[in-house]
Design a protein that fits this description.
327 residues; mainly alpha; ABC transporter involved in vitamin B12 uptake, BtuC; 14 helices
């Protein structure tokens, strides 16, 4: 790994730790830096310590794992579809996972059943976008992007229909979940585990991803089994998206802007792009969630609104830059 890549990873690692400390120490209650200092001396307030370790810490870890998972999924999709503007949100993968997860919840399912339903929805939506964009010939970046937007809009219509028939007692909670919400996360272990699997899997596939990014013809000449590789990347990106959706709902733009800016910052090989995207995505979502719960405290905003406020102008910037480079 190049020296510049190591420096990038060290910088992002420090930012990740800093974001977690920020989330742990900032909030509407009195729990803060003094609580940690008094904890070391054994004189801390039990209620303040409870806020830090039982409320803020699991939420911050869940946000970090979700951001990491979405960023890695975005990096994988951008290689898979050879489109720098691809991500689970824009291509409808997140929406597909949300539809099947929400359907399972409305039918009374919970736990692993919801995760499996979300995985099926994410994988199915990704395959649908790819097949529709390809059609009978080769797809291009513009067709793929437009197809993903249309499919995502279709899933949004299905979600709206589900909301219309949902019981009033569950409606507010469902809407917040769909917009991104970590308020009810108590066990971040599953998303942290899946994010770790995504990073390890992505790094094991790093050389393969580098070759795949050169195009099908070049990859085939180099002896890459394209169909098998695509199937693995499909499954891994769908798993990351599905668990992220079941953890926090639909959080947009993290998977788009993070890997893209990592590449702009000098990340070329996926040995550095994958872990750097995970660290940057985790830090970004932790900061976004901290803002979501503190801007109007004690009222909380959906974290998806914060990422959209950052992601929309970033997406337009990337879209314009991509169009200019192609033109």
């Amino acid at each position: 790994m190049l020296k510049s890549a190591r420096l990038l990873l060290l910088t992002l690692g420090a930012l990740g730790i800093g974001s977690l400390l920020l989330a742990l120490l900032i909030g509407s209650s009195t729990a803060g830096p003094d609580t940690l200092l008094s904890w070391w001396s054994g004189t801390t307030d039990p209620e303040a310590l409870e806020v830090l370790l039982r409320l803020r810490l699991p939420r911050a870890l869940a946000a970090f794992g979700t951001g990491a998972a979405l960023a890695v999924a975005g990096a994988l999709m951008q290689v898979l579809l050879r489109n720098p503007l691809a991500d689970p949100y824009v291509l409808g993968t997140s929406s597909g996972a949300a539809v099947t997860a929400l359907g399972a919840m409305l039918l009374g399912a919970s736990g692993l059943t919801v995760d499996i339903a979300a995985f099926a929805g994410a994988l199915g939506s990704t395959l649908l976008v790819f097949s529709l964009a390809r059609g009978t010939g080769a797809w291009n970046a513009n067709r793929l992007l437009l197809t993903g937007i249309v499919v995502a809009a279709g899933w949004s219509a299905v979600v709206s229909l589900m909301l219309a028939i949902s019981p009033d007692t569950k409606l507010r909670g469902i809407i917040f979940w769909l917009m991104g919400d970590f308020a009810f996360v108590e066990q971040p272990a599953s998303i942290l585990l899946v994010a770790t699997i995504g990073v390890v899997g992505g790094m094991l596939l790093a050389r393969t991803l580098d070759v795949l990014g050169t195009g099908d013809s070049q990859a085939a000449l180099l002896g890459l089994e394209i169909k098998r590789t695509r199937a693995i990347v499909y499954a891994l990106s769908s798993l990351l998206t599905a668990v992220a959706v079941t953890t926090a709902g639909v959080v947009g733009f993290v998977g788009l802007i993070v890997p893209h800016f990592i590449r702009l910052a000098g990340g070329t090989s996926h040995r550095s792009v994958i872990p750097a995207s995970a660290l940057a995505g985790g830090a970004l979502l932790v900061v976004a969630d901290t803002l979501a719960r503190t801007i109007l405290a004690p009222q909380q905003l959906p974290v998806g609104a914060i990422t959209a406020a950052v992601g929309v102008p970033a997406f337009l910037f990337l879209l314009r830059r991509d169009t200019r480079d192609r033109g």
